[in-house]
Amino acid sequence: DSGVTQTPKHLITATGQRVTLRCSPRSGDLSVYWYQQSLDQGLQFLIQYYNGEERAKGNILERFSAQQFPDLHSELNLSSLELGDSALYFCASSDLAPDTQYFGPGTRLTVL
Amino acid sequence: DQQVKQNSPSLSVQEGRISILNCDYTNSMFDYFLWYKKYPAEGPTFLISISSIKDKNEDGRFTVFLNKSAKHLSLHIVPSQPGDSAVYFCAASGRGSTLGRLYFGRGTQLTVWP
């Protein structure tokens, strides 16, 4: 158990819909990262937050947004969903960067 | 643009023998490297890391070697056990625009058979 929690574990929704994925980092970790794992792209970095502020952005679509709250949990919002957004979404946390990132169990999103 | 590459999608090793997983990278800004192990339906689990100031790091049965001039790292597992069967990901991070984020290879499926 990494100490990082993610909910929900599975999410099935339809195209055009909006969903929110939630992540709680390990106790004491200030950084939260979001990654997407799809079959054809592997694990891709989406976005990083540090103590409530956006720190780095990767291959994140404009339809996607994230935030980190004062209690350090983070939410990833995916809107206008398309079939190609079906993937595993992982959250990771760390204390300082560069540092080891610890991953949650992931949320499997299926868009029908 | 795949900056971290694992060219072997799979590796099969007999129990008790050595498993060697390889990884190459292209970005000279990378200075911190990690290996993760992943089982199906679970998140990646951290195994071992190495900083670019070292060329070797050991942790029990796992050793990571770094060859900076060749931009190559490898993970050695000795002795291999059936429970090691999983997908292994190499990841890298570094300075500047690469700071914080991890760049992952596509993974190598290790199968350890009795």
In short:
The complex is a heterodimer of chains A (112) and B (114). With 112 residues, chain A is mostly beta strands. Helices cover 0% and strands 54% of the residues of chain A.
What does this molecule look like?
The complex is a heterodimer of chains A (112) and B (114). Chain A is 0% helix and 54% strand. Chain A has strands at 5-7, 10-13, 19-24, 31-38, 42-50, 53-57, 64-68, 74-78, 87-94, 102-103, 107-111. Chain A starts with a strand and ends with a strand. The mean pLDDT of chain A is 93. In chain B, 0% of the residues lie in helices and 55% in strands. In chain B, strands 2, 4, 5, 9, 10 and 11 form a 6-stranded mixed β-sheet that branches. The radius of gyration of chain B is 14 Å and the shape is globular. The termini of chain B are far apart.
Sheet/helix structural class of chain A: mainly beta
Assembly state (oligomeric): heterodimer
Shape of chain A: globular
Approximately how much helix is present in the residues of chain B? under 10%
Task: Furnish the topology, listing elements before pairings.
The complex is a heterodimer of chains A (112) and B (114).
Chain A: E1 5-7, E2 10-13, E3 19-24, E4 31-38, E5 42-50, E6 53-57, E7 64-68, E8 74-78, E9 87-94, E10 102-103, E11 107-111
Parallel strand pairs in A: 2-11
Antiparallel strand pairs in A: 1-3, 3-8, 4-5, 4-9, 5-6, 7-8, 9-10, 9-11
Chain B: E1 4-5, E2 10-14, E3 19-25, E4 30-38, E5 45-51, E6 56-59, E7 62-67, E8 72-77, E9 86-94, E10 103-104, E11 108-113
Parallel strand pairs in B: 2-11
Antiparallel strand pairs in B: 1-3, 3-8, 4-5, 4-9, 6-7, 7-8, 9-10, 9-11
